Amino acid sequence: MLLRKLYQILQFLFVLPLTLPFFLFMRLFRRWLLIRIMPLYSSRIGHIALNTEVHLCERDAGINVPKECHINLYYHAYKPANKQLALMLGRCLRVWPSWLLRPVFILNSFFPGGLIHEIGENTSYDRDVYNLYERIPPHLSFTAKEELRGKEGLRIMGIPSDAEFICLIARDSAYLNTELPGQWDYHDYRDVDVQNYVLAAEALANLGYYVIRMGAVVKEPIHSSHPKVIDYATNGMRDDFMDVYLGAKCLFCISVGTGFDAIPQVFRRPIAYVNMVPIGYFATFLKNTVGICKKYKLVSEQRFLTFKEIFSRGVGFFGTTSDYQAQGIEVIENTPEEIKSLVIEMLERLKGVWKPEQNDDDLQRRFWKIFPVDAKDGCRPLHGKICARYGAQFLREKQDWLE
Known about the structure:
about 400 residues, alpha/beta, 2 domains, seven-stranded parallel sheet, three-stranded antiparallel sheet, 14 strands
């Protein structure tokens, strides 16, 4: 870490003679042309995709857009976590070299009046609280050559060009322990066992769908011998391009709420969330989305908290493993049967064959009456219009949690 900071300081001093004229131009000619700069949060696939897409949607909606003549410039604050995403962003943003813009951005922060030259953050970071996804199409797109490359990638994986497939991402600590060792272990409460997803994956496969287990670095393979369950994370076929292509083209994505599902989100693909935690950060603004959370167990009493207790105790927004430990809470994964029920509900809703039971709407109403739809993260809103639904079968079986 110390060597990295030293390198950045030396780099800053080395390029200063080149960047100083640009900085002076930016400041002196502000009256005629406002130049704004934004570092892209590039080190994590979820942030490079989601934060940027939300920013572009807000820009198109006229949010955080100056009235005067202006130009927006961007640079990657870190090495991009996915080269294909960086390439595609370069086609819809003015992404300049970081060696040039980073020193200008830093230099600008030292002088009064510099904030006007910063684009700043989104209204709510990586959350579409204005429900702009509903009316603004995706900003990223594939070229004709990339479309051919993607179809060839599917063929190599044994997936026919007309077949529908579903992406599955099960979070474990392997990736962050490899890329950022010792920095993210406080998020271990979000980890899951991929083997608990086999029942759901094979149920979908038996219905004729391909299920592709995603992931760049994972703890273990998924234990399924079904020919339509493909462990892309461990079979040697994964690369940055196919990560994006698969996420963009899937029928829907099964996720715990982790980095990869940002790709289906920005391409407006449906998401089925299981083992979602913390529940208070459920992506409620996404259409065609259903989800269920992990179960919050009060260890001292050997019972699960009701939904009302989860939120009245603040547990629904806990962000570190130590938070749960301090309150004597253990988060318990969804069972294979609960996962299967949720993904089948998602599939049937998408195919228009979902048949709700008589009290399903009432259960949804009761759940969302408890859910804190006006919650904020600091001063940032977490939810806009509620578009998602909570898992129907889960609520039927846990009606006492709604009391």
